Amino acid sequence: MKQIWAGIVRDKFLYLLALPGLLYFLIFRYIPMWGILISFQDYSPFQGMLGSPWVGLEHFRRFFSNPDFLLLFRNTLAINTLSLVFFFPLPIVLALMLNEVRNAAYKKIVQSIVYLPHFLSWVIIVGITFLLFSTGDGAINQMLVAFGFEKVDFLTNKNYFWAMLTAQSIWKDAGWGTILFLAAMASIDPQLHEAAKIDGAGRFRQIWHVTLPGIRSVIIILLILRIGHMMDVGFEQVFLMMNGAVSEVADVFDTYVYRLGIKQGQFSYSTAVGLFKSVVGLILVIGANKLAKKFGEDGVY
């Protein structure tokens, strides 16, 4: 205990710097975890957690036996799988391209342009989507009509819904996702690239044999963390894009929790659904981390 306290005193300014982040996780992440207890209760706001009766696993049995469970699981998994396959690699590719730009001014301009959509809210992103793809006055459909094609119901056709969500995520956050990869590339020893040049390696060979191995650990860590969010889609985006025509492919765990927990007041049941998501995410992180270690990577822990 004395050694721990001595280390805190020695590095007091570092701990002070980390204090806001620690307080954030303590107040908004760890203390609210006590709330998961209501998933095992028939919770009533008037009786509180101490007065509400315990029902054990009743809400979980109800959830797993619900016909909507498989639909919610399919939609959530499909949307996240598309994001993992198409969205996750793009920041890496974009970072590699930006890293090869030698004109500093041009590089900064491009970075600013690709970062900008990240700071737009989902309300604005979805509004832009409606302006572009609506059947009536959408710019895309107006162009199709001008070239002699028929209008396409992008927003009310369930066959396009998952693709549109993925495209929105790519446009909004692909540029922002390059920050960590560019930082990792900046830490690569320049002598490695010089040695590769002497050996006759071109740009692509240097990327494949020097740059990518240099950022491999960062890619693995971010991939593990991304896999841990396979049950989280992002409520705002799906909720704003959702309509009656696409509800069959749009209803996910997050919208289901909102509908039953907030609108219908089924607090215990919706908490059980949220706990299920968290447990699955934890299992996926642990499994992905073990798999990474088997292949010789450091993993998250």
Automatic annotation (TrEMBL):
Annotated membrane topology: Multi-pass membrane protein
Bilayer-spanning residue ranges: 12-31, 77-98, 119-140, 160-186, 207-227, 267-286
Gene3D superfamilies: MetI-like
Alphabetized UniProt keyword annotations: Membrane, Transmembrane, Transmembrane helix, Transport
Keyword Transmembrane on entry: yes
Domain of life: Bacteria
Segment forming the signal sequence: none
Cellular localisation: Cell membrane; Membrane
Matching InterPro entries: MetI-like, MetI-like_sf
Keyword field contains Transport: yes
Residue ranges constituting the ABC transmembrane type-1 domain according to the UniProt record: 73-288
Chief place of localization: membrane
Family: Belongs to the binding-protein-dependent transport system permease family.
Protein name per its UniProtKB record: ABC transporter permease subunit
Organism of provenance: Paenibacillus filicis
